[in-house]
Design a protein that fits this description.
With about 700 residues, the protein is an alpha/beta fold. The chain folds into four domains: about 70 residues, ATP-grasp fold, A domain (Dna Ligase, domain 1); about 130 residues, ATP-grasp fold, B domain (D-amino Acid Aminotransferase, Chain A, domain 1), CATH 3.30.470; about 160 residues, Rossmann fold; about 280 residues, Rossmann fold (3-Layer(aba) Sandwich). About 30% of the residues lie in helices and about 20% in strands. It is built from 22 helices and 31 strands. Strands 1, 8, 9, 10, 11, 12 and 13 form a seven-stranded antiparallel beta sheet that branches. It has a seven-stranded mixed beta sheet with strand order 21-22-20-19-23-24-25, with helices on both faces. Strands 27-26-29-28-30-31 form a six-stranded mixed beta sheet, sandwiched between helices. The protein is globular.
Length: about 700
Amino acid sequence: MNFEEHAAKPLLRAAGIATPRGCLARSGAEARAAAAELGVPVVVKAQVPAGKRGKAGGIRTADGAAAAGEAAEAILGMDIAGHRVESVLVEERAAIAAEYYAAVLNDPVSKGPLVMFSPEGGMDIEEVAVSKPGRVRRAPVDISRGLDADSARALLDGFGPELDDAAVAEVLVALYQAYRGNDAELLEINPLARLDDGRLVALDCKLVLDDSAIKRREALAGAGSPEPATELETRAQALDLKYIELDGDIGVIANGAGLTMTTMDVITDQGGKPANFLEIGGESYTKARPALELLLDNPRVKCLVVNFCGAFARTDVMTGGVLDAWEALSPDLPVFFSVHGTGATEARAMLLERLGMTPYPTMDEAIAAAVAAARAAGGAACSSPAGARRARGAGDAPRASRNAPVPDHGRSERRRRRGGAGGGRCDVIVRGGERVLVQGITGRQGTFWTERMQAYGTRVVGGVSPKRAGIEHCGVPVFASAREAMGGIGFDVSVLFIPPLGVKAAAIDAIEAGCPRLVVLTEHVPVQDVMEVLAAARANGAAVAGPNTAGLVTPGECFVGFMPAFEADIFRPGRVGVVSRSGSLGTLVCLNLVQAGLGESAFVGIGGGPILGTPPPDAGAARAARPRTDAGAAGTRPSPPPLATRWRRSTPTSARTRWWWSGRSAARWRRMPRSTSGAWRSRSSRSSRAGLRRPARRWGTQARS
């Protein structure tokens, strides 16, 4: 969630960082009154959650009240980066002697906070990093220790005598504390000005709040700025549906963000144009009717693709919801189903009984039929070059080439010694016979999946439920904590069925008890909580899969999580390892492997959060260590292409690797709805700001390793 400047500055003032006096105005008259009250020359600034306001004409100076009113009238109503200016901030003008840049943000590379500083403030920091790279400094922070004054002064060392004082270091420490105290993704001051009288004042401020932390920051979130939305998107937001309107004519309903974007990509690849992003996984199946109404209210939609590939989400439940909505609304619209995964047999029976329809054997066939129907109805062909190409298998990376073996050069042993780049050890493969603890075992999902893990052969030895400790559940003892379970029965892997705000305490409990591997299934875990969990994992030598992982599977031996390992048409012992951010897309890849007569040596769900415990290079090294792995398939949602480079450099294996990148059809400059990683395509993302480089214009649909 983004914030306008006037809503972000109170956080700085609460932390002890000075800001100019100012008033918010929504008309020229209010701006004149504000300037008169301030009684000094002022700056009139457009209030929109976007940068480059000055270049767009949204910041003007005024020497008096009348001029301030005129400036406000000129700015109000402007469109800046898709935002209509509804208010202006009238602030006293500062007598500036020097301008600096300061920020604290989430860093997916160090998996913790990153403090940045530059003496070149008042301009785009990315441009400074390119033209004067030595003038921008970054300092990763150990979140378990925080930022102290000595570390802040070390960041400033060598920039000149004007920065060799305690005041700037104190601002950096206060900025870090404000970032931590408000679950910020980014808290930035640009410029931090030194005035002629020597005072330090934050002239501008940018705040981005972690969406996953909104539930515990509701008062702060009330001051946030929603992204611009169409009428249908606004309706979807009110229903808590993840929907983005696009300009195509083929409606899409799928489960899981990764599978939904893959469906959109295959539509594009086959020459069609998706009309929307809409996923109804998890509990959203109960909203199938309003979801279908959204699609039907889009006049461009000429046909519909329903693509379900269930892991955690049961396809029979989702299909039942769609069928109920279909029967209630009776739309005159061609619909094409592809259904695989958990509950698929029951779902297919429902379709045959209630619609007289059999789902297509593969996603590609369903989409090919939908594209043909849209064309027959007068739909426009996709303008993308991909539209002219023949459809490929959904688990096969477009234009992927055979990869040459990667020499080891001793990297494998060095990486094992230093414990990987994630939480700790890189080996996250789960093996038959290992002891599994289920945290949250007595809950509905914990019970359901514990029983299925046990039926498959997973050795579940105990569970944790503080309120029900001392009972036996699913045939195993229940403890009050992981520490108590470790002392009582011992375990090798812990899997968490825990609500988002409880994950940090539960995970650290298991890690500090000595658990070597942790599987965090929960989505929407606040990012700073994830950082604290990973810091604890590094300190204790533990590996973490997740958060928001679908789990781990070793076909024929065991599984941990909620992947449908028990579905023989999806998981079968083989020689291909699979690593995926998305559970639904990973399920589809595994389905294609089995249909191709292959199978899997192991599946590793690395999770979909912006910061992951076990990154792809570590998961790839673990997967390649499986003796029967000859090749690997990497299914993932949008991620910057350097991910592939890191995989190649960090994964010593002769196994060939194939990639599938989803997200080519994602709306440009729009943040896509996320149940997982929060993939977006924007002009400057927080991750690119951390590395001070612009993301590729079109994020990779494939990568070579």
